[in-house]
């Protein structure tokens, strides 16, 4: 399938009928995998990720007429995916657990060699460490580390001071580091 840019997708969608379906098919073909991995980092399993992805794509399809183009189409869809993921996790009585900052480089300097472990095992250790964090620390880590948001953006989204977020992030990094050190000693 030929890749379409945002303007072409929106133009096709606004024609309606079969053209609208073609526009949606282009969105799925071009962006579903990226959305999948954004969601997967939060849900941590394939089945939940697929459920959230389907809900996200359905919302995108229903709301495409309302997209104003003030941001990139991907930014808008990522926002929908993020909100759908949070809603899903809340319904499952789990809070989003993750955070990050410049101090995240400390994670890379943990004594012991993570380089010898397969990526899947490193990911599993990281997610296990994230599960031990208090909800707020986990959420800040998620937004900063995985979504690469600035503290200012996170502050606006969560309604928390930048200083408080930096402190939460710092504590999260220290706890993750300690958790990973302990896990590596058990391997």
Describe this structure as you would to a colleague.
- 71% of the residues lie in helices and 0% in strands.
- Helix 1 (6-15) crosses helix 2 (17-43).
- Residues 93-111 have low confidence and may be disordered.
- The chain is mostly helical and 187 residues long.
Helix content: over 70%
As for the CATH topology of the largest domain, it is Rna Polymerase Sigma Factor, Chain: A
**What would CATH call the homologous superfamily of the largest domain?**
RNA polymerase sigma factor, region 2, helix turn helix motif
Secondary-structure-derived class: mainly alpha
What's the mean pLDDT score? 81
Whole-number total of structural domains: 2
CATH architecture of the largest domain: Orthogonal Bundle
Q: How can the largest sheet be summarized?
A: none
The number of helical elements comes to 8
Strand and helix order = HHHHHHHH
In percent terms, what proportion of residues is strand? under 5%
- Poorly predicted regions are 93-111
- What's the total count of β strands? 0
Task: Characterize this entry briefly.
The chain is an all-alpha fold and 187 residues long. Helix content is 71%, strand content 0%.
Salient structural properties:
Rna Polymerase Sigma Factor, Chain: A; Arc Repressor Mutant, subunit A; elongated; 2 domains; 187 residues; mainly alpha; 0% strand; 8 helices
Write the layout of secondary structure elements.
Layout: H1 6-15, H2 17-43, H3 46-63, H4 73-91, H5 119-131, H6 135-146, H7 151-158, H8 162-186
Helix pairs in contact: 1-2, 2-3, 2-4, 3-4, 5-8, 6-8
């Amino acid at each position: 399938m030929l890749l379409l840019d945002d303007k072409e997708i929106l133009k096709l969608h606004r024609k309606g009928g079969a053209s609208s379906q073609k526009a949606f098919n282009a969105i799925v073909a071009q962006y579903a995998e990226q959305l999948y991995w954004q969601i997967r980092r939060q849900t941590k399993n394939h089945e939940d990720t697929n459920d959230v992805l389907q809900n996200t794509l359905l919302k995108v399809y229903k709301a495409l007429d309302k997209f104003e183009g003030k941001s990139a189409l991907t930014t808008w869809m990522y926002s929908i995916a993020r909100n759908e993921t949070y809603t899903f996790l809340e319904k499952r009585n789990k809070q989003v657990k993750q955070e990050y900052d410049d101090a995240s480089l400390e994670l890379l300097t943990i004594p012991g060699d993570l380089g010898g472990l397969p990526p899947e095992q490193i990911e599993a250790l990281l997610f296990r460490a994230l599960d031990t964090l208090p909800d707020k620390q986990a959420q800040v880590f998620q937004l900063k580390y995985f979504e690469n948001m600035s503290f200012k953006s996170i502050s606006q989204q969560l309604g928390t001071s930048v200083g408080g977020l930096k402190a939460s992030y710092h504590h999260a990094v220290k706890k993750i580091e300690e958790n990973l050190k302990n896990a590596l000693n058990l391997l």
